[in-house]
């Protein structure tokens, strides 16, 4: 009995010590301050998840309503220059690389007052060349830069299960790890600066070409008289099945093109794919065709549709809509 009580006592002491250490680590994490610039479809839910994790957060966006919403949840409104001076890390979630560079390096940008040791993380989808430019400029100021675009779209941004693909230095990536944990399900350092951005471009090629292939196939099925929803149910469990098809076919048959990922953003990404591929002499014939499909959708006024709306290009060619009243 004495030995059992002694073992129990030691066990309780170990638990208490572990709790103290964990609380101390959490306190250190919470004491760090983060900035978040860009509160759009992706940035807003990502910032919310940082707040839910107990992180002190400063936010900025040109859309004041988005800022006000985050302030109502506990964030502080701040200018980019102020973030550079006061935050340990600054996240960007912006439409393109030119805006990211401007936000960082204009006269009143993040870098104008940045404190050495600050780490900037750009989650925007940009070119590797743009990422490397930011990395070099910030490195010269004694700061870190990680390109860490995401995959998963708005649904995974909301539920905090995004996948981060990162490029940069190991130490800077490690400094961001706990923030990644608050916003995503996984984060991988692919390699040096620009590696995250080129991984995202590869991801966008696969996702958007898959949507195009699925669109062409289901337009064929619909025009031939088959019910698209039943076609989907028949093939989703086989080799043709994919996460992309599971995400987009329910939206397509419901004629729901409310954007989780706008065609305009993906159009920009495929343009970046072609620019990057041409710069290193990589032929990209399928991506080139995809870009022209998106150009046609741009002319047709579909740029603000979800990229599942790529189906509308094929529908117009064939004179049919992929829809079903038998979805169950």
Briefly summarize what is shown.
The protein has about 325 residues and is an alpha/beta fold. The protein has helices at about 1-30, 45-50, 65-70, 80-85, 95-105, 130-140, 155-160, 170-185, 195-225, 230-235, 245-255, 265-280, 285-300, 310-320; strands at about 35, 55-60, 75, 90, 120, 145, 150, 160-165, 185-190. The protein folds into 3 domains: about 1-30; about 35-190, 3-Layer(aba) Sandwich (Rossmann fold); about 200-320, N-(1-d-carboxylethyl)-l-norvaline Dehydrogenase, domain 2, CATH 1.10.1040.
Can you put this structure into words, describing what you see?
The chain is built from 14 helices and nine strands. The protein is an alpha/beta fold. It folds into three domains: about 1-30; about 35-190, 3-Layer(aba) Sandwich (Rossmann fold); about 200-320, N-(1-d-carboxylethyl)-l-norvaline Dehydrogenase, domain 2 (Orthogonal Bundle), CATH 1.10.1040.10. The strands form two sheets. Strands 3-2-1-4-5-6 form a six-stranded parallel β-sheet, sandwiched between helices. A three-stranded mixed β-sheet has the order 7-8-9. It is globular and about 65 Å long.
Spans of at least 5 consecutive residues with low confidence: 19-30
- For the biggest β-sheet, the strand order reads 3-2-1-4-5-6
- Structural class, by secondary structure, is alpha/beta
| CATH domain class name of the largest domain | Alpha Beta
Helix segment tally: 14
Q: What would the principal axes of the Cα set say about the shape?
A: globular
The CATH fourth-level homologous superfamily of the largest domain? NAD(P)-binding Rossmann-like Domain
**Structural domain count:** 3
What portion of residues belong to β-strands? 5-15%
Distance between the termini: 62 Å
CATH architecture descriptor text of the largest domain: 3-Layer(aba) Sandwich
Percentage of residues in helical conformation: 55-70%
CATH topology of the largest domain: Rossmann fold
Mean pLDDT: 92
Number of strands: 9
Largest sheet: 6 strands, parallel
> What Rg is obtained from the alpha carbons, in whole angstroms?
23 Å
Encode the helix/strand succession as letters. HEHEHEHEHEHEEHEHEHHHHHH
